[in-house]
Amino acid sequence: LPSLSLPSSMHLIQVDSVQRWMEDLKLMTDCECMCILQSKPISIEKDEQNELILSSQYSACDNLQLLLKRAWIISTELTRIAQKLKKNRWQRVHSMTVRVNCHVRSMINEYNTFTRNSSEEMHQFEKLLIDKCSEFTAFTERCIQTEDEEILKPMKSCINETLTTVAQYFSQLIELVLTHEAQNLLRQIELSDSVYVTESAISSLFSLTQEGAHLCRIIAKEGGVVALFKICRQDSFRCLYPQTLRTLASICCVEEGMHQLEKVDGILCLAEILTDNTHSEATHAEAAAVIAQITSPHLTFTQHLSSFLENMEEIVTALVKLCQEASSGEVFLLASAALANITFFDTMACEILLQLNAMKILLAACSDKHIVDTPYSRDQVVTILANMSVLDQCASEIIQGNGVQLLMEMLFERSSSGNSAEIAACERVQQKSAVTLARLSRDPEVADAAVKLSCIPRLIKLCRSPTERNNSDSVLVACLAALRRLAVMSPDGLEDSDFQQLIKPRLVDSFLLCTNMEESFV
After folding, report:
1. CA-to-CA distance for 161 and 92, rounded, in angstroms?
2. Is residue 282 part of a domain?
3. C-alpha span between 469 and 29 (Å, rounded)
4. How far apart are CA 185 and CA 168, in angstroms?
5. Dist CA 449 CA 350 (whole Å)
6. Gap between the Cα atoms of 265 and 272, Å rounded
7. What is the 3-state secondary structure (H, E, C) of 241-308?
8. Residue 319 placed within a domain
9. What is the pTM assigned to this prediction?
10. Which InterPro entries match (predicted)?
11. How far apart are CA 14 and CA 230, in angstroms?
């Protein structure tokens, strides 16, 4: 930007009305104009490209998303102010404070144009936040007018304190706003008989759940799970079941959501949906997604599982059927993910699966590349096989379904996209296929089939070559365990060096050998 030089006569103007206008202008100026005029001074610092600007030209339906985006920007700016303050970059601190002031005022103004029935408490926090932001800006403005360290040192302490208070007021206001919006949406869901209005409210609620666990907690506390299961029990809203169940799956990632699910007999409702053949495949798939969510082995809260066990046989039967009849890879993934999670917490589930010929169904599905079409799906299948392999009867099922061949193929699982999530899924497939082989190879028939399919050379390659296992330690440990089990059954399939390095030592010593001397093995 070119520097601006004002005529000397401009400095002589001392009119009260002009001064008043200048003061009012700070409050009325649009945020983007303020950013250009005050928040982007000519600076030697090279972080201008990181400035966070947000257009206010949004349609009415995007108001809530605009609010969340504005809130994220303010939160980010407050963090950056703290960082600049530590480095005593007063000019930057001031310009960023002005920008936060603008964003706060814009956020409050924008929200008040579309909100309804905002509470007195919310208005009080709005005023507190605006006043504190003005105080904050005034503090930082004084700091750029002096370079005296004796003056700046105590002021820095005041600014830090004010920054903390601004952040606190801001967090409390956002909490109130989001709670208010969740209440409005849930009120619409509970009171409306219109499919269109209810669909719109559920869609907005789902968008909120995608903003993180904190919003899911707010929705759960305000009765979101109760309201959504009420929809799932009304035939007049059948067309909304998939969308409603998808929203429920998101809310149930938090403990508060799970508590609510337990209170309204949500698992019984899910079992009824899954076993009702009049529902669409989409509805069954989304119900499976909720089951997968609430049975996730990563969850630390499991009090809901007692009621799950009561309905487990019905649910597992329905999920196996969904896997067998799945018309797409996505439906199969959701159903198999639910089954995989269920096999983790009760061996009875594995016994039910055996009785239902699930092994045969899953192995057959893997031969259909349109159904089992990603490493994520294969991860679910091999998880089920690994957990079922603890049962003695599983070995014959594997042999009959050509399962050893599938496990051998899974040892070659590689990512085609290079995506980190897909690479991680491929590692899990390799690890679990090796674990399954190790468990099943206690049966001589399975071990013999594995040896004939050249599993031993592949396991050796995975142990010795870090690139083959993507440097994964968990894959290495699983492969060493499987190799040792097969070596007992077929010692002739090993060269002496393999035996001395991979079989004879303690497993931990072989592991260290493979991780510390990788280059010599490649």
Report:
1. 18
2. no
3. 58
4. 26
5. 23
6. 11
7. HHHHHHHHHHHCCCHHHHHHHHHCCHHHHHHHHHHCCCCCHHHHHHHHHHHHHHCCCCCCCCCCHHHH
8. no
9. 0.80
10. ARM-like, ARM-type_fold, Armadillo, Insc_C, INSC_LBD, INSC_LBD_sf, Inscuteable
11. 67
Q: Token pair 């917490």 is at which residue?
A: 345
CATH of the domain at 66: 1.20.120.330
Q: Which domain holds residue 104?
A: 57-178
Q: Are 455 and 411 in contact (CB under 8 A)?
A: yes
Q: Among residues 455, 448, 519, which one has the least CA distance to residue 481?
A: 455
Would 211 be classed as within a structural domain? no
- Categorise residue 119: left if φ over 0, alpha if ψ from -120 to 50, beta otherwise: beta
C-alpha dihedral (50, 52, 53, 54), degrees to nearest 10: 140
Amino acid at 413: E
Which residues, other chains included, contact 405 with Cβ-Cβ below 8 Å and sequence gap of 6+? Answer: 453
Distance CA 406, CA 446 (A): 13
- pLDDT, tens digit, 9 for 90 and up, residues 362-401: 999 999 989 998 999 999 999 999 999 988 888 888 988 8
Residue 141 falls inside a structural domain? yes
**Which of 228, 252, 254 has the alpha carbon at shortest distance from 241?**
228
How many folded domains does the chain comprise? 2
